[in-house]
Design goal:
Structural class: alpha/beta
Number of domains: 2
Radius of gyration: 20 Å
CATH superfamily of the largest domain: Spore Coat Polysaccharide Biosynthesis Protein SpsA, Chain A
CATH class of the largest domain: Alpha Beta
Strand content: 15-25%
Shape: globular
Largest sheet: 10 strands, mixed
């Protein structure tokens, strides 16, 4: 049977969470489950992740497939999964997250009849106990086919929401940066240029675990990994510069780029006043050389809409202004 959806699950030492993740994908109706392909990409894991994944492959061989590979971090798992996917559509599910099973079933059935380039669904943040503490919905007219221009680039767009048509990503020659984290931002960047028509299916499919110790969004981990996001942003800028697309898609890419650049500068200059600024200074120089447009773009960042702290920081030759920042916070 032709697969409607491939779900890629990058997996590195996730034995604590993987069973719950995979169990959430076991749709009760066998004919619907047969439309789903799940690629569990074991990224050189040293725990029992492979054993857990193999159990699902043995129980549901028509749906689950385990792929073992040497460790190459998140992007390498996506790249391998994209090569092996057979589904008409493709989606990413992190191994510490899990699906809302009954809504995943609705998504799979919808995709089996759909031909749009992108399907957007909702997600919710959950804690370790499975308690929902934040729900994120998309801002567009629900349950209807829309042009890409209906996407407001300033509104929430996260990788948990998106399901792309697989053939579009392959035609684009899409790959994610390997050996580093935070490449999920690439997943909601360049692939969007392939989207002409999308559909907002107003259901919550994705449970995003928030607050796990050691996850990339943990504040302490993120601060230590700033250079990785810098590498991701520079890769996005290279793609951005070489992209020939229409105004609507360019506006979306510009806003995504701005949000990621803003996060880098704010983390170092505002949120962590004692952090070493040498990595940011080096990044700022690279940004200026690589893209004057992106360099100017980030200058528009202001605290409370008034204080252009990045512009001032550059004007003062990379000196901090803690009193002014404190005043405007």
């Amino acid at each position: 049977m032709n697969k409607a959806l491939t779900i890629i699950i990058p997996t590195y030492n996730m034995e604590k969470y993987l069973d719950k993740c995979l169990r959430s994908l076991v749709i009760e109706k066998s004919d619907t489950l047969a439309l789903l392909e799940v690629l569990v990409v074991i990224d050189g894991a040293t725990d029992k992740s492979l054993e857990i994944a193999n159990q699902y492959q043995e129980t549901h061989p028509e749906t689950f497939r385990v792929i073992e590979k040497p460790n190459g971090n998140y992007g390498s798992c996506i790249n391998r999964g994209l090569k092996e996917a057979t589904g008409k559509y493709i989606k990413i599910l992190d191994a510490d997250d899990y699906a809302v099973t009954e809504n995943l079933e609705k998504l799979v059935l919808f995709l089996s009849q759909s031909d749009v380039d992108l399907v957007i669904t909702n997600f919710q943040k959950v804690n370790e106990r499975g308690e929902i503490f934040e729900s994120s919905k998309f801002y567009a007219q629900p349950d209807t086919e829309l042009n890409f221009s209906a996407i407001d680039p300033k509104k929430t767009m996260e990788m948990h929401m998106v399901t792309y048509k697989t053939e579009n990503l392959r035609a684009l020659g899409y790959t994610q940066t390997e050996k580093i984290s935070y490449t999920d931002q690439e997943w909601i960047f360049m692939p969007m240029v392939t989207v002409q028509k999308f559909y907002y299916l107003d259901i919550t499919v994705y449970n995003y675990l928030w607050g796990r110790e050691g996850q990339t969004m943990d504040a302490a981990v993120y601060l230590k990994s700033q250079t990785q996001l810098m590498i991701v942003c520079l890769a996005m800028i290279r793609e951005y510069k070489n992209c020939e697309t229409d105004f609507t898609h360019k506006a979306y890419l510009t806003e995504r780029l701005y949000k990621n650049l803003k996060r880098i500068y704010r983390t170092a200059l505002v949120d962590n006043p004692d952090v070493d600024l040498q990595p940011l200074i080096a990044f700022d120089g690279l940004l200026k050389r690589q893209s004057r447009d992106a360099y100017k773009l980030v200058s528009r960042c202001k605290l409370r809409g008034r204080y252009p702290y990045i512009w001032v920081w550059r004007l003062l030759k990379y000196k901090r202004t803690p009193s002014l920042i404190k005043y405007f916070l």
